Every structure is written in C-alpha cells, then in structure tokens.
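tool=predict chain=A
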Amino acid sequence: MRIPALILLAAASAAAYAAGPAPRLWEAVRPSDPGLHIYVLAATAHGLPLEYDSYFDNVVLPAFSQAEVLHYEGAGGLPPDAYPPCAPGLRAQDEAVRGPGQGAVAFALRERRPQMRVADLDPVPLPGMSYCSMGRGRIALAPLAGSEPRSSQAELAALAEGEAPPGLDPAAICPRNARWLRTLSGLRDGRTHFVVADVQHVRDVEAPAGRCRGILNGLLEAGFVVWPVAEFRPIAEYRPLPKP
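tool=predict ok
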C-alpha cells in the first residue's frame, strides 16, 4: 500500500472519528509489508455491556470477520498442574484477583468463529500473573484480592481522551507492552491479525524511567501507519494486491 493512500485513509477516518463515538478499534499497516494487517481492539477488564454496542456490531464484528488470527491474553491457557492446586480458599481469592479480564470480549469473538486460529499474547506464564496454577508466583497480586474492581467506564473515558487510565502500575504494564510489541512488530506472515488488548496496554504509560510505549505508539515507532476505525471499510477496498 502506498503511503499517500494510507494518509488519505487515516484522514478520512479522523473526520468520521470527530463526528461519531470514540473508536475502540485501530488498524495498523506497515507500508513496507502491505499484506500484513493488524487490528487492535481495546477492551475493559470486566466485559461491560456498553462494549457490546452499535459500534461493536457495525465496526468491530465486520473487522473481525476479515481476520485470520485472534490474539488475546490467555488464549493458549497455562500448563495444567504446573504446581499443586490452590486450597479452596486461595482459589476463590485467586479468581477474585484475576477477574474475567479482557478475555470476556475476546471469548465472545472466539465463540463466533470457533475454528479460527488463536495466539496467546502471553504464551508462557509470567511471574506477576495471579493464576492458581502458578503457585508462589500468584502471591505478588494477593493483596489485591477483595478490592473493588477498577472503574472500567473511567478507563474507556480516558481512552476516548487519548490517555492511559489513571492509577496504572508501570512495573506490571510496561514489560508486557514491550513483549507484545516485539511479537506484533515481528509479524511477517502477510495475514490479518486481530488483537484484543486490555485498555491499560493501548496508550503510553508514565513510568519512573520515562514514558513507556503503549501498543498504538509502539506500532507507530515500528514503522506502521495506525489510525482509529470510526467506520468499517473492507480491507479489499484499500489493499492494492490480493493476498496469495
């Protein structure tokens, strides 16, 4: 895809963005590799009903119908019985910490296309994740058990303003952003990928060592052209060459 065509497309999307609801979906194309296409959908941790709105029906679902690979946290699952199972009380506490995650939206999409190829954004267990099967690794988040869920509506409001949600822990967010960006920027398969990411990971985050890149600006730095999707357009309308 030629860069001028991408600029025109992004400008048209920006005009539609100004006239309609704040998008939660972005598209990314690398001019040097026009066959590769990445959608990034920001989702809250609790799968709010307001996320299944007209924007979801008219923009997210048509875009998802074009995708060949779905990426989200926990898509591949963790190895079973990697550690002795948690005691019943700890298991309940663990689930309270873990919550439904952005998998609530990702699972809704996966159910629509159960045969679709999936890829886990976190393909290996991470020390800070609060799954019972991680044994001692889950202790890092145990103090959060029983706390009130963060305000997902406030997160969506911050996203609409172009900011990261308040109160994020850079130590938990920034390393994962970096790993995910290495994976996404390293894609060279010419496919259309659909990424469901927690809203915390989409925008840049202020950290003691400086701002760490969210997915959107990280893709920009990796050479992608990125724009918000205000209105759905089939990829075939602006991809000059058919996929092999």
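The CA atoms of residues 8 and 109 lie 30 Å apart. Residues 3-83+101-123+151-237 form one domain.
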